[in-house]
Design goal:
318 residues, alpha/beta, FAD/NAD(P)-binding domain, seven-stranded mixed β-sheet, 9 helices, 28% helix, 28% strand
């Protein structure tokens, strides 16, 4: 099977890249290893609260490309986003509203629950994408919307220098614990977090919950085997001096927070990485965006969307 463009990875960046390629009228296919699109950006409603699997809070949206994309999706920023009381912005209806808006507009073919083992050049100057079921797809352009280490494994043997740089990425394994209180006299802030106990951030708001209540999302750097589920909930509530919540949700992502982008000279490393790749191959995703201050711990979601959109347009134009 031949496609002009193949997008590997159906997380948020892959979905945006697929939408951009689709807008160019190209024959393309999106490949995703999971049962659903969206990656970590997933939301669920429970007992009057709207929880996010991924980050609830993002740095304020300023990138015009990303803001215009929201408008194209029927999500005007002034109606879709709100300012959190503890800093940053969040989606009024949960981050899934963004995924749903993109998916409604996506019409290109998708291969779901399909893993890719490697990519490389094949005859005729085409790129080959080898699936783990033994099938090989050919394409003229390739977009990798994958975490760095996964992209490195796929590129090994084809672009070895790029693979080396990607496989070197380091991550924090974070747990995000969301707590919903129907009645809450005050909101928590970063100042309420115990020192040296694995806490990274806390975001809280009185929106996305019943009137008079509060929604908190606590981010922890913690070994999943040591505490998870009910045990983690009880431990966090005890340490923060909180009662058990009326509703809660926990999510763990091993590649949720890349450490490497915060290291010195990351911009040079990223430039070297991109210089290793042929023009018809693009890398998109949160691992390839210059981060804000680590102290803020607010992902640059607008920059991530803008990167996926612009890189997909660049590759499609070749």
């Amino acid at each position: 099977m031949h496609r002009q463009t193949i997008i590997l990875g159906g997380g948020l960046s892959g979905m945006v890249a697929a939408l951009a390629v689709q807008a160019q009228g190209q024959l393309a296919t999106l490949i995703e290893v999971k049962r659903r699109l969206g990656g970590a950006q997933h939301s669920l409603a429970r007992d009057g609260f709207i929880f996010d699997d991924g980050s609830m809070a993002f740095a304020p949206w300023r990138d015009e490309v990303a803001l215009e994309l929201l408008r194209r999706l029927g999500l005007p920023p002034e109606q879709t986003l709100f300012d959190l009381e503890t800093g940053g912005q969040a989606f009024r209806q949960g981050s899934a509203v963004l995924l749903e808006a993109i998916e409604r507009q996506l019409s290109l073919p998708r291969l779901m629950r399909m893993a890719v083992s490697s990519v490389g050049e094949i005859e005729g100057g085409l790129l080959g994408v080898c699936l783990e079921n033994g099938l090989t797809l050919s394409c003229e352009r390739l977009i990798l919307a994958l975490p760095a280490r996964q992209a490195g494994r796929v590129l090994a043997g084809y672009q070895d220098e790029a693979a080396r740089l990607l496989l070197d990425y380091r991550y924090d394994s974070l747990q995000r614990l969301s707590l919903g209180y129907s009645q809450a006299p005050r909101l928590l802030s970063r100042d309420d977090l115990p020192e040296d106990m694995g806490y990274v951030a806390v975001h809280s708001t009185r929106q996305r919950c019943p009137k008079g209540g509060a929604l908190l999302q606590v981010v922890l750097r913690l070994d999943v085997q040591r505490a998870s589920g009910q045990a983690l909930l009880e431990r966090v509530c005890q340490e923060l001096g909180l009662p058990l919540p009326d509703a809660w949700h926990a999510a763990t992502w091993e590649t949720a927070d890349a450490i490497t982008p915060y290291e010195p000279r990351f911009a040079e490393r990223l430039a070297r990485l991109r210089a290793c790749l042929p023009p018809r191959l693009a890398l998109v995703g949160s691992d390839y965006v210059l981060p804000p201050s680590r102290h803020l711990h607010l992902p640059l979601l607008d920059a991530r969307l803008a990167l996926a959109w612009s890189q997909a347009h660049r590759v499609a134009a070749i």
